[in-house]
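Extended Data, panel c. Modelled sequence:
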Amino acid sequence: MKIIKTVFEIPKMDCPSEENLIRVKLNSIEGILKLEFDLVNRKLSVYHSDNLELIEKSILEINLGGKIISSEEIELKEIEEESNQKQILWIVLAINFSFFLIEIITGIISNSMGLVADSLDMLADAFVYGISLYAVGSTIERKKRVATLAGLFQLTLAIIGFVEVIRRFLGLEKIPDFEVMIVVSFFAAIANGICLYLLQKSRSNEAHIKASMIFTSNDVIINIGVIVAGILVLIFNSQIPDLIVGSIVFVLVISGAIRILKLGK
């Protein structure tokens, strides 16, 4: 069987949500054997046997930009199994979802909006990994429904959280428990560090690995932000640092939810 490798440059593709958007769009096209995403350089390699015109048309319809920079026939070879990478993504998903539960519970108990916001960021990551894994072997209609439900759920939680932040800015609230903020965020940072290590250890040019590394690196930065907020709460005996960090993270979560919703269109 003839195999063609066509490389696209997609200028506006720079996050896992946009990668999944492209995957959903291309899923129903016959003849595609494998997709390789390079988010850093904004390139997509499509291994296919046919339908190049349809592939190009579908990519352009996503409105992320896109042009063919090379297309060549390659030698017939076995398409690599992605089971090991899928296993890693399952581990990363489990860690993110576990810390979503831990952080949202401790965030409510400690009165910390920073922890609550960070928990929703963890949930957002779990959604993206889950949609990526669920996409394999599933119908395009089912994938779109899952993406829409996940995006709406995440968006609803983030908006409720953001409204609560505004309410706390305007009213008097109990000072957050800085010790819980620092300790929980510290362990969340370790968990994300483990995720990043696993992703780097199995690093290849495969799709979800690079995307997940970018996502997880951002998570570590957010965890550090919550730790810093906890220290500032201690120093100034004020809830303002916690609310500022919570506001920033909620905005990021809302942005992520909107990206996920695009998958359902």
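The chain has eight helices and four strands. This feature is highlighted in the accompanying rendering.
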